[in-house]
Automatic annotation (TrEMBL):
It comes from Trapa incisa. This is Beta-adaptin-like protein. GO terms for molecular function: clathrin binding. Keywords: Membrane, Protein transport, Transport. It holds the Pfam family B2-adapt-app_C. InterPro entries: AP_beta (IPR026739), AP_complex_bsu_1_2_4 (IPR016342), ARM-like (IPR011989), ARM-type_fold (IPR016024), B-adaptin_app_sub_C (IPR015151), Clathrin/coatomer_adapt-like_N (IPR002553), TBP_dom_sf (IPR012295). The keyword Membrane applies.
Amino acid sequence: MAPPAHSSRSPSPSQPSGKGEVSDLKSQLRQLAGSRAPGVDDSKRDLFKKVISYMTIGIDVSSLFGEMVMCSATSDVVLKKMCYLYVGNYAKVNPDLALLTINFLQRDCKDEDPMIRGLALRSLCSLRVPILVEYLVGPLASGLKDSNSYVRMVAVIGVLKLYHISSVTCMDADFPAILKHLMLNDRDTQVVANCLSTLQEIWTAEASNSGEASRERDALLSKPLIYYLLNRIKEFSEWAQCLILELVAKYVPSDTNEIFDIMNLLEDRLQHANGAVVLATIKVFLQLTLSMTDVHQQVYERIKAPLLTLVSSGSPEQSYAVLGHLHLLVMRAPMLFSSDYKHFYCQYNEPFYVKKLKLEMLTAVANESNTYEIVTELCEYAANVDIPIARESIRAVGKIALQQYDVNAIVDRLLQFLEMEKDYVTAETLVLVKDLLRKYPQWSHDCIAVVGNISSKNVQEPKAKAALIWMLGEYSQDMQDAPYILESLAENWDDEHSPEVRLHLLTALMKCFFKRSPETRKALGIALAAGVADFHQDVHDRALFYYRLLRYNISIAERVVNPPKQAVSVFADPQSSEIKDRIFDEFNSLSVLYQKPSYMFTDKEHRGPFEFSDELGNLSTEANVSAQKVEADDKDLLLSISEKGDSGFPANGSAYNAPSYDSSKSLSASSTSSDLVILETGVLHQASPSLAIDDLLGLGLSTTPAPAPAPPLSLNPKAVLDPGTFQQKWRQLPISLSLELPVSPQGVAALTTPQALIMHMQGNSIHCIATGGQSPNFKFFFFAQKSEELSKFLVECIINTSSSKAQLKIKADDQNSTQAFSVLFESALSKFGML
């Protein structure tokens, strides 16, 4: 028998089985409330622990509120703490019950024990009930004047809590002025630090509405206050030191002497054991010397040793945080760190994220003097059993080669990687060889000799296969088997799922066609026909563009697709200099670890490339065009040139075939050859528009029109399905198709607003009936209906943003249409940028 739907947790000894046990607790607490018998506090402790344990696992014990308050009349600090925890948990959701606690909390605020006074004041300010604000002013005022530093420290933070509950009450009570006095005169450094933190937050919030608050905020950066805090900085805790140093980093000294005074005061903070204090001190040094180039460079030399020491000590997490900041400095001044490259060698027991950052730094510090040692070390990592590190190390070797350091030796090592017969090594190396050939075309002979021995069947990764195809097209005149390899790929077009590979294949065949046309024309015809019918919009558009270009003029097509190229001098930097400067200004913050300015991951209007995803979703809904209409438009466009020019081109009967030929218009072999002049160099020149181009593409001169393909699957944009029917169908229908698809980084970013995906899919006639889950797992249930039938498709889509995978389960009334619907669904996801 199935368990009840409302409970999936098996009862445990510490969990009450019903209301009876809570009632027993209530009666026991009531009995102990007024008792003064010996050992009563121990009994109360046992009951309080049981109440707190029930509350922790989500059981409602708010009915015990009155009894818990009555039992709190004790001098036992442990009982007080548990009672305050209970009260704070239920006060916000039950404001009426919170009124019961005011009297005993106010009474405890006057207790002889400073620990109880502080705990009571903290609990009173943590109630966060607006109707109780009037009861906070008196205890807070008394707490700020308390003789015990712990109570004063709690009271200062209580003022900030009061400000967030009722800013008017806080300002009317003149608490900021009291805090300012405490900050300048209190002997306890923790009280001073709390005052500084509270005043910063209050005056920053008030500055937009009050000129006086703005002046007070600026006064925190005055010279007397800065020097007062710096002279006492050794007395503060580590957290407080970081707070003060963050304030000093914003201070603008009046002259260079003042800069050196501050740096001399903080010199010993660079040797502090706490990494946060060291980083905060470094930020002060860097900000103060930005306008002093020579001194700024000396600062780099001075801070290098403390940072390298922190990297080698502590936990991997601390090492990563320090390495992130060191990475930023290395990128700004790589020459200053070039002699310390051995500190960035990877240790066997370091986690992947630390090793990856070290590899980036090795790439940055490479120069003429250390390239050989660094590349030798990286080549050792390429044979590592840790595949991600092996990949990163190969990329690092390629980046160093692109910096023009010891290119000859590096190219030889990269070509040796291709002989390792490891799929991932071959894949990464092919991508790098492609970039190297773009920058160093003089190495094409050596590289092509090795690349030509690699079978395309052994290369499965899309980027690697695209790189191999690019080389086959670009250097087809030097690779004997290039046309035949490309032809086999074109014949297996449907087996290639990556749009990137299909795009490169189209371009490579075009380039090969201009160099070795007789061997390539059949493959190009197959690829153009398949590309025009491709569901991916970019592939479809490029194939259509190439097809029209060839029909118009082959010479112009060659100048467009395969013009003379100059070697690439500099590859684009993924980050602009403005972004890097902004990150540097936010030194000692998460911006350095994320490698992006704070506005990109904090403000809602800066959520990456999909910042306006809601608007994009609306546009995609409004601009949705059915597949049938697109195909019809394409057929019209294919005919537009021939009809307007009256050049005699016949009508296109199929999206998968070039124009069919009428037998009365077919040309003889002699007339065909007379229209085209094929030079010995393999370049084609078209004398005039003619039907010969169709035969040149290997599409045949059949007098019988090719049979029309099956009509594409069309969906009903106004399909309706109620949730009950969906659930019933989902239980009854078998799974027709199960897929796992990779999700692109853009797709992960887009899921910050899942509604955009829902609206986009609706624009493609695929409707969402339910959503669920939270980051990193999102679940969507979609349905669609054929346009002229009642047959429906049901989809469960689970997207995991941490693993970048999407799992699809498709169920259908018509099993024969599942594959066609799957293609439509994937195409819709691709258009959104998900795949």
